[in-house]
Amino acid sequence: MAAPQPIHHATHNPAPEPPAVSVALARAHQRYWRFNVALIAALMTVGFAVSFLLPLAAPALARVRFAGFSLPFYFGAQGAILIYLALIVVYILSMQRADRRLQRAFDADAKAAVRSAPGAGDASDAVRAAARQSLTTQPTAAADSRARGT
């Protein structure tokens, strides 16, 4: 008797199709991620300038005084840390605002779906809940390995 051939989990358990979303919701999601990437790039540019460019300009700024200390010393001692904390706060507040905008777009899309399909009731609610989950969560490596069965 021949040994059984291994069965690949991908062929027996294909990944589920993502739920269909409207064009408006897809655009809102695309705008959300473009904003996120642009915000991160801008904040990282400021962090780079504080971390690397300001120390390069330290000799030229040594005569400038701030709070009784030379400006390069102040930035090295506490100014840079305060700027990094400010960058974190700016990111948090900006992303909360972007999250609210995306949620409003999702809610408007859900209301439009309810209006266009009266009587769909529970089925459309389940589809909207699945769409919300797929748009707001990113799969982790552990979840991917569990899904593949490895």
Summarize the structure.
The protein is mainly alpha-helical.
Plain-language structure description:
The chain is mainly alpha-helical. It has a domain at 22-115. It has 6 helices and 2 strands. The protein has helices at residues 9-12, 23-56, 58-61, 71-116, 121-136, 141-148; strands at residues 65-66, 69-70. Strands 1-2 form a two-stranded antiparallel sheet. Strand 1 and strand 2 form a beta hairpin. Helix 2 (23-56) runs antiparallel to helix 4. The radius of gyration is 25 Å and the shape is elongated. The model has no long low-confidence stretch (mean pLDDT 79). This is Putative solute symporter protein.
What are the defining features of this structure?
150 residues, mainly alpha, two-stranded antiparallel sheet, 6 helices, transmembrane, membrane
Topology:
Layout lengths: L8 H4 L10 H34 L1 H4 L3 E2 L2 E2 H46 L4 H16 L4 H8 L2
Antiparallel strand pairs: 1-2
Helix pairs in contact: 2-4, 4-5
Give the N-to-C terminal Cα separation.
27 Å
Q: Rg to the nearest angstrom?
A: 25 Å
Overall shape: it is elongated
Main-sheet strand order equals: 1-2
Count of individual helical segments = 6
Helix proportion: over 70%
Mean pLDDT: 79
Strand content: under 5%
Region (Disordered): 115-150
Transmembrane segments: 37-61, 73-94
Protein name: Putative solute symporter protein
Domain Sodium symporter small subunit: 29-102
